[in-house]
């Protein structure tokens, strides 16, 4: 047990987004196939995935929804975990960057880097959008304006901590040159070295003060750790680095492969190794940047209406069909296209025709000619050799391809065996053998060879198509399904009985299915079109309305809520009683604009705490749909406070 070779594989940790598309699932499906293959081949595997939950964007969405960021991410993350269940992803650990042990370890990492002089305090200068409280780079702007709200941006400065990247760049260049397998595929390595490392690295901004949904810098509480130190550290904190129990860290680090999309290669092949060098830790053995999954019309985006939803595909075609397409059709390392028609045609040809038919024909013949009983191979012939030799060679071929991270090639080796077995049926013509009583033993041998080839196939496909593998094994009545059992062509037991089952991949009517999917897409696009006015809410009676106690109040004091840039704390007078109200209107009003104003308060709303501050009611305001404009509802005259609004 202890001598098992270890294999530590990671996916990126995902941003909590409600709609992960088929492109997002690609990294995780590929990593899962690799992890499952290594487990099968006898490695001690640790497969890590998780979620990257901090940042201004999350804070803003949560504020808009009126929930805390943690409440917001909790819900999304549970959806992501469900998606991984649907995609049959078998991970060993799911890390969340909001996990306590991660937060503590990141704080310690940050402090260590600061104490040893790799992190220093300075200021960050950029283009700032005040209403959105966001810094942007020149290239992110749209027509010179904020890409989120379209309003003008202005140059601004913010105090921030920086990581001295350049200090380590020569060491990193040397490491990359001495370890050609470190960045893969090769083309991406050249891009990193020539475009980023050689021209010289900028120091990296690693903290922010303009939002607070992040890990607080331990020794300077106005700052939160900004993005990459928090996110990248997950690969070691998940193993217990920085905590009491470092057993997993000691066992599994360094990672054998970080599997990521090409968009985040720079962070993984430059910032991450430099962070590790600064911490005095070993570097991962390999970072593999896969290509982009494109759809007709280019990148997937909601506005183009071309987002492919993995759950819909799984509903219609089953999880293994989706896994097969991603793993077989997308050249690993390069961009690939997802298209419904090619997808369905591939299911029909490779899964229904080649694999499905091989299984159903074989089982049907064993059933018909031998009442389902598996015969021992008694009459061998020269013609069997080619099939048996290919079956015995295939595991090694698959293993070699996987070791080179060539997943489509690995599957193609398996399908060569599937094809060879189908050809063997045509060559040996069992239905003719069946007509001759004297050929009964030869017929039994032919069927044995087919069953045994299928046993090989069922084991070999298990990392890629786990549930199909189980279905095949059940029909074959396979007992031995280990990797080692593929070293001899004799695992199938004569005398046992096959279990005729359902067709594993029914043929799909391409035209009909495409029409069905098109209709579905049209439906979802329709749903997404924004109505010009929000639909009116359900009708209520005057008694319902009467339950709401609306009162005129006067704002007597107003100040910002520290660290919550959208919120203002108002003190209002309600007929002599002072109330405190927290209102998310600081983008639209300065405190001094509100003092003295008569506004309308929902006075009988249950008090709540917002950012730790008590809010006793809600100020009424009207705003545009996109929140670009907002006005409080105010009373132009001097009605006494406490007057009812009816
Ligand atoms: N949170 C960061 C990663 C931090 S890792 C320390 C992140 N998250 S993400 O949710 O945006 O992306 C997760 C993965 O999905 C990445 O590997 C990304 O490359 C991948 N993909 C997103 N869209 C994709 C396609 N259209 N095609 C293939 N992969 C794509 O980045």
What does this structure look like?
The chain is of the alpha/beta class and 646 residues long. It folds into 3 domains: 6-290, Rossmann fold; 330-487, Isoleucyl-tRNA Synthetase, Domain 1; 542-645, OB fold (Dihydrolipoamide Acetyltransferase, E2P) (Beta Barrel). The protein is built from 21 helices and 23 strands. The chain binds 5'-O-[(L-methionyl)-sulphamoyl]adenosine. 5'-O-[(L-methionyl)-sulphamoyl]adenosine (MSP) binds next to strand 1, helix 1, helix 7 and strand 11. Residues 12-15, 23-24, 26-27, 52, 231-232, 234, 260-261, 263-264, 292-293, 300 line the site of 5'-O-[(L-methionyl)-sulphamoyl]adenosine.
Structural class comes to alpha/beta
Question: What's the name of the CATH homologous superfamily of the largest domain?
Answer: HUPs
Evaluate the radius of gyration.
31 Å
Q: What kind of sheet is the major sheet?
A: 6 strands, parallel
For the largest sheet, list the strands in their spatial order. Answer: 3-2-1-11-12-7
Counting DSSP H or I runs of 4 or more residues, the number of helices is 21
Number of extended strands: 23
In the CATH scheme, what's the topology name of the largest domain? Rossmann fold
Short characterization:
The chain is α/β, with parallel strands linked by helices.
Keywords summarizing the entry:
646 residues; Isoleucyl-tRNA Synthetase, Domain 1; 3 domains; five-stranded antiparallel beta sheet
